[in-house]
Design goal:
This is 3'-5' exonuclease DinG. The chain is an alpha/beta fold and 968 residues long. 46% of the residues lie in helices and 14% in strands. The strands form five sheets. Strands 10-11-9-12-18-8-19 form a seven-stranded parallel β-sheet, sandwiched between helices. Strands 22-23-21-24-25-20-26 form a seven-stranded parallel β-sheet, sandwiched between helices.
C-alpha cells in the first residue's frame, strides 16, 4: 500500500443508481508517503444541479456548462487510479459513485484496496470530538480553504491520511498487532495496512543476540502485551508537610496589595491584567469567611473575574493553615479550565509553590485488568462498533496519561463497552492486581491526596457526601463554583436511575455462551481443579437453562414497560425524551401486569444469581496454593457481576414493587429514535437536609459562588434550597457584586408588546410571529445571533422555517441547530464563530456556559421565559410538597428557578467590556404579568424598550452600528 489515490467526488445527490451524477472530481496521488500529483476537474452532469447542492458546494449550473463529460475525463482519472489503493473520507459514498461510473462507461469494477479515513481517524484519533473532514482539518491545522469542493476536500483528506500514517508509524509494534486482530471485519482494508506496518516494524527489530539489546522505550510502558503512554512523576505535596518558612507575619490585605499593584507579580504573569474593585472585594470576603469559619454566598456578575477572586485567597488561606483546598465545579469544562489556566497562572504568581490535581468519579477511569480481559474475548461474534471501541481504547492507551473516559469519543456500543471495563469497587483486586502500580484510578487518588488544591465536579462532591466522605481526602474548606447547580446535582446524584438497556446489557455480560466470562471461568476452573468438573458442569447446565428463559422475561418486561410509558408520556425535556410520572400503587387492574412481569424477572434473576454464587464457591479457599491469576481475575469480575446483578434486582424492586414516599418516580422514553428503551428515575423530594447536616453543619467554611444566585437581589431562595436557612444566622454570609460592565450603554433589551401570548407549537399565529421575529433580528444583526428555546420541538419548527425564509436573502445565512446539525455544544459554538452571517439555535444547555466574546455574537433572542414544564415529575412532586406545607409552589419554586435561568441566558450576550449587543424577549409575560418584574429586576441595568415590534426591530441595526465603548 505504498501507492494510493485520495479521491473526493462532488455529486448531484446521494444515490448514483437513481440518477445522481458526479459534478467534480478531486484526486491526490501519494507514493511512498509523499504527495506526487494532484488532479481536479468539474464535470458536466447532464442534468441540473439541485439548489441545495449549489448552496453546499458553491458549484452552479453555469460553472459546469462548458465542463467536460465524465466519459471525456475518466481515462485520465483511471490512469491515476491504476495500481493504487482508493482512499476517501467516508469511502463507501465515493466508492459507490466510482463503481456506478465504471459500470456505465463499460469498465470493470474497481477491485483494489480501499481505505476510509473516517474509520482510520476513529481508530487512531480516539480523543477527537468529531470526525467530519472540516473539523478534523481545523483541529489538526490542515489547510482546507473550500470545504465541499472536491479539489480542496481531496487535498485535505490526503494531508489527513499522511497524518494518520505518521501516527501508525509511531505506534509500538504490540499495539499494531493487537489492532490487527480487531479490524478484520472493517469495511475498508485497514487490516492490510496494519499488516504492512507490522512487517516494517518487525524488520526494524534487532536480531536475537545483537548488541546493544532492545532498549526500553522512552515513550511507552509496555506491560502484559499492552503499550501505555509513560506518565509524569507523582506530585510533591507542599502545604501538608511541615515547612520552616511561612509568611504568617503579613496580613492578607498586605500580601494582596503586593501581588496586585503595578509592580506586582499578577501584572507580570497575566498580560493585560487590570485591577477590579469587585474582584478584590470578593477576595477579601473569601479569605475572611475561611479565616472566621463561616459559609459565604457570593453572586459575582459577568466580568468580575470570580475564578481568581476565590482561588487566590483560598490558596493563601490553605497554605497558611497547612490544609488542602477543595474546589468543585458543575461542568468538566470549567474543571479543566481552572486546572490548566487559572491554577497555572497562580503557580507563577504566588510567592510559594503549590500543587494541584483533578479527581473524577471512579467510573470515569479505565480498569486496565478488565480491559486486558476484554481483549482476550473471542473477536468472532462481537459487532464492528464493539471492535472499534476496543481498538480506540488500545490507541488511546498510547496517548492518555489519565485514563479518563471524558477524553474519549466512543460510539454508542463503545459507551456500553465502557461499562464493562470501567473501574469500580466491587470488581477490584486492589494490591493483588498486576496492574495496581499502573492503575489510573489509584494514581488519581494518590495525586488527589497529595495535592494542595483539588479540583472536582459537583457530581463527585455530592457522591462523597453520600459515601460518608470516603472518596475525597478529608477537607475543612471548599469552594463551589457554578453553585446555582448544587441542588440539581444533589437531586441527580442522591437519586436513583435504571434503564431497560442497562438490564439487557447486564444479561449479555452474564452470557453462558462460549467465550463469555462465565464459560471462560468454568473452563479455567476445570483445567486447574479437575475434581470440581462434575459439579461445575451441573451448575453451568442449570445456568444455560435459566439464561434463555431469563432473557425472554426481560424482553417481555421491557415491552410491557415501554407500551405503558409511551402511551402516557409527554415532552417535558429537550433531550428527545418524553416523560410520565407514576406511582407504584397505580399499577392495579389492567396495569397489574407490570408488577407481575417485574416480579417474575426479579425471581428469575435471583435464581440465576444463586447459581453464579454457587459456581464461585467452588474456588477453594487458598491454603498453600493460590488460584492462578486468570482464575482470580475472572472470579473477581464475576463477583462484580453478581454485585451489579443484586443492585439491579434491588432497583427493580425499588422502582416497580414498593414506593418510597420520600421520592418522586418517573419514566422516560425516546421519542425521536426507534429504540424501545425506558429510563426509570427517582429523585428525593427534598435535598436540603442531605446538604445541611453532612455538609454545612460539619465543614468549617463553604464558599458558594455563581453569576446567578439571587432573585430580586435576595439570596433567600438558594438558602432555603441548600438548607442554609437551617443554620444559625451568624454562620452564613452573603455578598452581591455587580458586573463592571456598562450595561446601560453596552446593551439594549427589547420586549415587543404586540406579540401573541406564548402559545403551543400548533398555534399558527404564535408560531408565525416567532419565526418572522427571529428572521427580522437575524437580518438586522447580519447573522451573529443566538436564539434560546425551552423546547426542542419548537426549535426544530423554527429552524426549518427560518432556513426557507433566509434562503431568499441576497446574502447567504448559515443556521446551526442543536440536535439537528450536532448534539455537541462546543462544536456548534466553534462552527458559529467560524462563519460569517451565522445563527445558532440552542435549548437548555445553551442558556449557560456558552462564552462568545466580541463581534461573533451581537444579538440574543429568548423565545419563552424558561419555566420548568408544570408536568415535569420533579417539579410536580416538589410543588405538591410545598402546597401541603401551605406554600405557593409557583412563587416559591417555579418563579425563582425561571428567573435564575433567565439571568443565565441573558448573560450569554455581554461577555467583555467592549461587547455590545441586543437582547430580544418574545415573551410578553415579562411586561404583562405581575411576576414579570421579578425577571427585569434581576437583570443588569440594560436600556429597556417596549412597544410594537415593527418599531422595535428598527432599533437593532443602528444600535449595533454604534461604536464600542473605549477601554474602561
Amino acid at each position: 500500500m505504498n501507492r494510493l489515490l485520495v479521491v473526493d467526488f462532488e455529486t448531484t445527490g446521494s444515490h448514483p443508481r437513481q440518477g445522481d451524477s458526479i459534478i467534480q472530481i478531486g484526486a491526490v496521488a501519494i507514493d511512498d508517503g509523499q504527495i506526487t500529483e494532484c488532479f481536479s476537474t468539474l464535470i458536466h452532469p447532464g442534468q441540473d444541479i439541485p439548489p441545495f447542492i449549489t448552496q453546499l458546494t458553491g458549484i452552479t449550473n453555469e460553472m459546469v456548462a462548458d465542463a467536460p463529460t465524465l466519459e471525456e475525463v475518466f481515462p485520465t482519472f483511471l490512469r491515476l487510479l491504476d495500481g493504487r489503493a482508493f482512499v476517501a473520507h467516508n469511502a463507501s459514498f465515493d466508492l459507490q459513485f466510482l463503481q456506478e461510473a465504471l459500470l456505465s462507461q463499460g469498465y470493470y469494477a474497481f477491485d483494489g484496496y480501499v481505505l476510509d479515513t473516517v474509520e482510520l481517524s476513529r481508530l487512531l484519533l480516539p480523543m477527537q470530538n468529531s470526525y467530519r473532514l472540516g473539523e478534523l482539518a481545523s483541529e489538526l491545522a490542515i489547510e482546507h480553504d473550500n470545504p465541499h469542493q472536491a479539489d480542496s476536500d481531496a487535498l485535505a483528506t490526503a494531508q489527513l491520511f499522511l497524518h494518520l500514517l505518521d501516527i501508525l508509524q509511531q505506534l509500538p509494534l504490540v499495539t499494531i498487532q493487537r489492532l490487527q486482530m480487531l479490524v478484520s471485519s472493517f469495511r475498508s482494508d485497514i487490516a492490510t495496512l496494519l499488516r504492512q506496518m507490522e512487517m516494517e516494524k518487525l524488520a526494524e527489530l534487532p536480531q536475537l543476540g545483537d548488541e546493544p539489546a532492545r532498549q526500553a522505550s522512552p515513550l511507552w510502558d509496555i506491560y502484559r502485551q499492552l503499550a501505555l503512554k509513560k506518565r509524569e512523576e507523582k506530585l510533591k505535596a507542599s502545604f501538608q508537610r511541615p515547612q520552616t518558612e511561612r509568611s504568617y507575619g503579613k496580613a492578607f490585605s498586605e500580601q494582596l496589595e503586593e501581588m496586585l499593584n503595578e509592580k506586582g507579580q499578577m501584572h507580570a504573569s497575566m498580560s493585560g491584567y487590570q485591577r477590579r474593585e469587585a474582584q478584590e472585594a470578593m477576595m477579601h470576603a473569601v479569605f475572611d469567611a475561611m479565616q472566621e469559619g463561616t459559609h459565604l454566598l457570593v453572586e459575582a456578575g459577568t466580568g468580575t473575574g470570580k475564578s481568581l477572586a476565590y482561588l487566590l485567597p483560598g490558596i493563601i488561606w490553605a497554605y497558611q493553615n497547612q490544609q488542602q483546598l477543595v474546589v468543585s465545579t458543575n461542568t468538566i469544562q470549567l474543571q479543566e479550565q481552572l486546572f490548566h489556566k487559572e491554577i497555572a497562572t497562580l503557580q507563577q504568581t504566588l510567592p510559594f509553590a503549590f500543587t494541584a490535581s483533578t479527581l473524577k468519579g471512579r467510573g470515569n477511569y479505565l480498569c486496565l485488568r478488565k480491559f486486558e480481559m476484554a481483549l482476550e474475548e473471542p473477536v468472532e461474534g462481537s459487532n464492528q462498533e464493539m471492535r472499534l471501541a476496543k481498538g480506540q481504547l488500545l490507541t488511546w492507551l498510547t496517548q492518555t496519561e489519565t485514563g479518563d473516559v471524558e477524553e474519549l469519543s466512543l460510539p454508542p456500543s463503545g459507551q456500553l463497552f465502557w461499562q464493562q471495563v470501567k473501574s469500580d469497587t466491587s470488581s477490584c483486586l486492589n494490591r493483588a492486581c498486576p496492574w495496581f502500580s499502573r492503575c489510573y484510578y489509584f494514581q488519581a487518588k494518590d495525586r488527589a491526596k497529595e495535592a494542595d488544591v483539588l479540583i472536582v465536579n459537583h457530581a463527585l462532591f455530592i457522591s462523597d457526601l453520600q459515601a460518608e466522605n470516603r472518596i475525597l481526602p478529608p477537607y475543612e474548606v471548599a469552594i463551589l463554583d457554578e453553585a446555582h447547580h448544587l441542588e440539581d446535582a444533589a437531586t441527580q446524584h442522591l437519586g436513583k436511575q435504571l434503564t431497560t438497556t442497562q438490564v439487557m446489557f447486564l444479561l449479555d455480560r452474564a452470557s453462558v455462551e462460549e467465550g463469555g466470562a462465565i464459560a471462560r471461568f468454568a473452563e479455567e476452573m476445570q483445567s486447574w481443579q479437575p475434581s470440581v468438573q462434575e459439579e461445575l458442569n451441573t451448575v453451568l447446565l442449570e445456568c444455560k437453562k435459566l439464561s434463555a428463559s431469563l432473557r425472554d422475561k426481560a424482553q417481555q418486561w421491557t415491552q410491557f414497560l415501554y407500551a405503558w410509558a409511551s402511551e402516557r408520556a409527554e415532552e417535558t425535556t429537550d433531550a428527545g425524551r418524553e416523560t410520565v410520572r407514576y406511582r407504584v400503587a397505580s399499577f392495579t387492574g389492567k396495569q397489574e401486569k407490570i408488577r407481575k412481569v417485574t416480579k417474575k424477572l426479579i425471581d428469575a434473576m435471583t435464581d440465576f444469581a444463586s447459581r453464579l454464587e454457587q459456581m464461585l464457591k467452588l474456588v477453594p479457599v487458598p491454603q498453600e496454593e493460590k488460584p492462578p491469576f486468570l482464575i482470580r481475575s475472572l472470579q473477581t469480575d464475576l463477583f462484580g457481576l453478581v454485585k451489579e446483578w443484586q443492585n439491579v434486582m434491588e432497583l427493580l424492586h425499588f422502582f416497580l414493587q414498593e414506593q418510597d414516599p420520600n421520592y418522586v418516580y418517573w419514566m422516560e422514553v425516546e421519542s425521536r429514535t426507534a429504540r424501545k428503551q425506558v429510563h426509570l428515575s427517582a429523585a428525593l423530594l427534598d435535598v436540603a437536609d442531605s446538604l445541611a447536616e453532612p455538609l454545612f453543619s460539619q465543614k468549617r467554611s463553604l464558599i458558594m459562588t455563581s453569576a446567578t444566585l439571587t432573585v430580586k437581589n435576595s439570596f433567600s431562595y438558594v438558602m432555603s434550597r441548600f438548607g442554609l436557612d437551617k443554620l444559625p444566622a451568624e454562620r452564613v454570609r452573603t455578598l452581591s457584586l455587580p458586573s463592571p460592565f456598562h450595561y446601560e450603554e453596552q446593551g439594549l433589551l427589547l420586549i415587543p408588546s404586540d406579540f401573541p401570548a406564548p402559545g403551543k407549537e400548533n398555534d399558527q399565529t404564535y408560531l408565525e410571529a416567532i419565526i418572522q421575529g427571529c428572521v427580522d433580528v437575524v437580518v438586522a444583526s447580519k447573522g451573529r445571533t443566538l436564539i434560546l428555546f425551552t423546547s426542542h420541538s419548537m426549535l426544530r419548527l423554527v429552524y426549518q422555517a427560518m432556513k426557507e425564509r433566509l434562503a431568499g436573502e441576497p446574502e447567504p445565512y448559515t443556521l446551526f441547530g442543536h440536535g439537528i446539525d450536532s448534539n455537541n455544544r462546543s462544536k456548534l459554538v466553534s462552527l458559529f464563530r467560524s462563519m460569517e452571517r451565522s445563527v445558532l439555535l440552542g435549548t437548555s444547555s445553551f442558556w449557560e456556559g456558552v462564552d462568545i466574546q466580541g463581534e461573533w455574537l451581537s444579538s440574543l433572542v429568548i423565545i419563552k421565559l424558561p419555566f420548568t414544564p408544570p408536568n415535569h415529575p420533579v417539579y410536580q412532586g416538589r410543588a405538591e410538597a410545598l402546597k401541603a406545607d401551605g406554600k405557593n409552589a409557583f412563587m416559591s419554586l417555579a418563579l425563582p428557578q425561571a428567573v435564575i435561568l433567565f439571568k443565565q441566558g441573558v448573560g450569554r450576550l455581554i461577555r467583555h467590556h467592549l461587547d455590545r449587543g441586543v437582547v430580544v424577549v418574545f415573551d410578553t409575560r415579562v411586561v404583562e404579568s405581575r411576576y414579570g418584574r421579578s425577571f427585569l429586576q434581576s437583570l443588569p441595568p440594560f436600556q429597556v424598550e417596549t412597544g410594537s415590534w415593527p418599531t422595535l426591530r428598527e432599533r437593532i441595526e443602528p444600535f449595533l452600528r454604534m461604536q464600542s465603548l473605549p477601554d474602561s
